[in-house]
Amino acid sequence: MTNSFLRAYKNLIGSEGGYSNNKNDKGGETYKGISRVYNPNWEGWELIDRLKNSYPSIDAFKEALNSSEELEKMVQKFYYEKYWNRFKGDFMPYMIAEELLEQSVVLGTWRTAGKQLQKALNLLNRNGKLYPDLVVDGLVGVKTLQALDKVQPRRVLKVLNGLEFCRFKESMEKRPVNEIFVGWFDRV
User: Fold this and answer.
1) What is the CA radius of gyration of the chain?
2) Is 146 found in the same domain as 63?
3) Disulfide engineering: 110 pairs with which of 51, 94, 104, 188, CB 3.0-4.6 Å?
4) Domain boundary at 35, 52, 77, which?
């Protein structure tokens, strides 16, 4: 794992927290942002289940989770392989890669974050003068990375944040129970 990834991961986990099992969260049981509903085959669930059955109180269970180096390595591996590498985080400005890691987690997939990046870049191409519109498929490849090189990273970041805000707003309008997750806006 690269230093850039580990730095972005540290910031991500500061927002994600630890263990949660909120009945209003469509992701259900989560650990450090990894949803059991959406990632049922993640290797960490086996260890979490063992620990859950070993501790009588929720506080002791959460403490055991947070002190497990094995579990921490599983979480890092998950985010590095399932997100960071897939959107090619090591080949773009750090601030963009960090934002894509965060959006991958909060919006559900690395591919959704890739689409956000492509939408942002399409908005910033000056009607095709800097580069042609990108296909918004979420697959970050050579064309997406070349386009990213032609735009100021801070501007891309601002547009990414605006798109993220719109996703949160739409989610809350479509499913009002999501208004309990107002902390989403802290990520923008």
Assistant:
1) 18
2) no
3) 104
4) 77
